[in-house]
Specification:
Blueprint: H1 2-20, H2 26-33, H3 39-60, H4 73-90, H5 94-102, H6 106-133, H7 142-146, H8 150-175, H9 181-197, H10 211-220, H11 226-255, H12 266-272, H13 276-297, H14 301-310, H15 314-334
Length: 340
């Protein structure tokens, strides 16, 4: 019970941080896919930059361990492209879906349903698409590459961390925005993830997408396979974590009187109209694609890009690159025409 409460608290804090900077909003993420709003990418870069330095110190002190995702070439590349495409169509990522549901977003609910189906189908198809996911090249990171040369390692971590932070502020300067909430959220996400990494807390990184096949397989009864055995523990952890995020978002939105059932947001209406059936259809498809891609790659925005990026893992950076390519290309094509 104490472990569950700890996870719920971490999930609640995560939800509040994301909600504070509106990183879960459909309009923000969909605009990112068209490079019209870079709040998401700025926050991620800042989180990775600060988090990489902070986490390296914590691990160096023996207070935490690395949890690097393996570099599975096909899964990371194709999964990244598919994930980015789903994120553009849906307008949410796995972690922000739960937070937006807490605020009353109906399209996020549909996206979760689509994601559950995506997770289920992935479990069923995995034995047949293992060839596409490809060869496991191992857990490659800056630490594994440098080895025991601690001075070189820490110097490089600081240099890379600073570059990421500078990159975030460079993008912000180009945008000429005055909103500073993304800075606070980026710092807090780095601190939260580092705390979650601690051996004294949960000894794992933050993640979200594993909960989808976990829940789907439980509901469908497709648990007698090696894949479910592999995801059972992290899937359960992430389910509790996301539940905490959803509840926290709900409480805050009610207190602020922002809670409202919404299906169609202004960015969607601008490009796709106000048809509810159309939005429901594409939210389902987007959710399906999003989670299927995440499971191919072995992670998502929070579990792969942020948590892996903080560990300076090669697999996570490659995933991030192809996710961004899939996100932008799909965003440009899918939202090519404006109705209004």
């Amino acid at each position: 019970m104490e472990t569950i409460l700890v996870i719920l608290v971490f999930g609640s804090v995560f939800g509040l941080i994301i909600q504070y900077a509106s990183l879960n909003k459909y309009n923000v993420i969909s605009a990112q896919s068209k490079l019209k709003n870079n709040t998401v990418i700025k926050t991620i870069l800042l989180t990775i930059g600060i988090g990489a330095i902070l986490l390296s110190v914590i691990i160096g002190l023996g207070l935490a361990s690395f949890h690097v995702k393996p570099f599975v070439l096909g899964g990371v590349i194709f999964g990244g492209l598919i994930f980015g495409s789903g994120m553009a169509i849906l307008g949410y990522c796995p972690g922000t879906l739960a937070i937006s549901v807490g605020e009353g977003s109906i399209d996020a609910v549909v996206g979760i349903i689509g994601g559950l189906f995506g997770g289920l189908i992935f479990t069923v198809l995995l034995p047949n698409i293992q060839w596409l996911i490809g060869l496991n090249l191992g857990k490659i990171s800056l630490f594994s590459a440098i080895g025991d040369h601690q001075l070189i390692y820490y110097f490089t971590v600081v240099a890379i961390g600073v570059l990421f932070v500078l990159g975030a502020f460079f993008i912000n300067k180009k945008e000429k925005t005055i909103d500073k909430k993304w800075i606070i959220s980026g710092v807090l996400l780095a601190v939260l993830n580092s705390i979650v990494f601690l051996s004294a807390t949960t000894n794992r990184p933050i993640g979200a997408s594993t909960s989808f096949p976990y829940i789907a397989d439980l509901l469908a009864g497709t648990t007698e396979n090696t894949y479910f055995s592999k995801i059972a523990t992290p899937g359960n952890w992430e389910m509790i974590f996301l539940f905490g995020a959803m509840v926290a978002a709900f409480i805050v939105s009610v207190i602020k009187k922002d809670f409202k059932f919404r299906l169609i947001y202004s960015n969607w209406e601008k490009h796709k109209g106000n048809s509810k059936i159309k939005r429901i259809f594409w939210a389902f498809i987007g959710g399906f694609i999003l989670i299927f891609g995440a499971r191919m790659a072995g992670g998502c925005t929070s579990g792969h890009i942020i948590s892996g990026g903080m560990q300076l893992a090669v697999s996570s950076f490659v995933f991030a690159i192809f996710m961004f390519v899939g996100l932008v290309i799909t965003g440009k094509l899918f939202f090519k025409n404006s109705i209004n």
